[in-house]
Amino acid sequence: MITGSSSASIPEESLAALQQEVQQNLEQLKPNVMLETMKGWIPGLIAFGIKLLIALAIFAVGSRVIKIIYHMLNRSFTRMDMEISLRKFLLSVLNATMYCLLGFIIAGQIGVNSASIVALLGSASIAVGLAVQGSLANFAGGVLILMMKPFRVGDYIVSKDGEGTVHTIGLVYTVLNTVDNKQVVIPNGTLSNSPLTNVTAMDKRRVDIKIGIGYGSDLKRAKEILEQIYVNHPCILKEESIDVYVDELGASSVTIGGRGWVATEDYWSTRWNMMEQIKLRFDEAGIEIPYNQLDVHIKNGNAETQDS
């Protein structure tokens, strides 16, 4: 009777050899896989590197071009005698715009989708615009004022919201100094959309004076005195015409008037001085300046009263 084991045993030498062979194959397989993977990356890395170098070159050249354009615009705005606040603002906006365009060009060069960036910026701009709508109106008014120059710093202007000497013209507000040394801040949107008077825009102003005299006063003498005051005043411009005339025959007075020209900065001092001279000279000449008065007449020596 022959007996045997139920399963054949593997020699230990063969098992060790098999394990060694598997280990060698694994060691050979890992570097090969990594190398193959890296070989697949290399073309993409090279292409990205080339794009990056081109983008850096575009940035360098573009930055140089932007600086040249910036200095050219700055010189042009200076020659145009543009207000310094408007000049700085426009240069800042143009500089930022040019760098944004350069950024979009670079983003497109390296493969970034610029359409989504533009859409995001557009949505953000709309939201901000709605939030600051009133301020934007004042801002637009400030730009119009600085560009059209209806008035400058130092001018005396009169508007429905106040009057005074222009102290500051900002992009949103204009500051006026009043004659009693107060400051009035007016939104530029209001100033740009409403009528205003620039009192000091011209080099010369006309001093118009009208004054009433009594019907019993010497009309010719009154006109002579008024004309002498105009002619002899040192601030009245002699090269300009001087007019003295009868303006109106009123209910209780004859109104005479005079016209003469002065330098704008001498207007108020000249007018005040001339008004004082007129009163003094008329008093000396016995010329009456009527004023409103109430005359009470009593009949038969008794005042009659009546209850209502």
UniProtKB/TrEMBL annotation:
Q: Where in the cell is it found?
A: Cell membrane
Domain Mechanosensitive ion channel MscS, by residue range, is 135-200
Question: Quick one: where is this thing mainly located?
Answer: membrane
* Superkingdom, natural source: Bacteria
> What are the entry keywords?
Cell membrane, Membrane, Transmembrane, Transmembrane helix
UniProt-recorded Gene Ontology molecular function terms: mechanosensitive monoatomic ion channel activity
- Annotated ranges, domain Mechanosensitive ion channel MscS C-terminal: 207-289
Sequence similarity: Belongs to the MscS (TC 1.A.23) family.
| A GO CC term attached to the entry | plasma membrane
UniProt topology in membrane: Multi-pass membrane protein
Q: Which residues cross the membrane?
A: 41-66, 89-111, 117-146
Alphabetized InterPro entries for the sequence: LSM_dom_sf, MS_channel_C, MscS_archaea/bacteria_type, MscS_beta-dom_sf, MscS_channel_2nd, MscS_channel_C_sf, MscS_channel_CS, MscS_channel_TM-2
Q: Which Pfam families match?
A: MS_channel_2nd (PF00924), MS_channel_3rd (PF21082)
Protein's recorded name: Mechanosensitive ion channel family protein
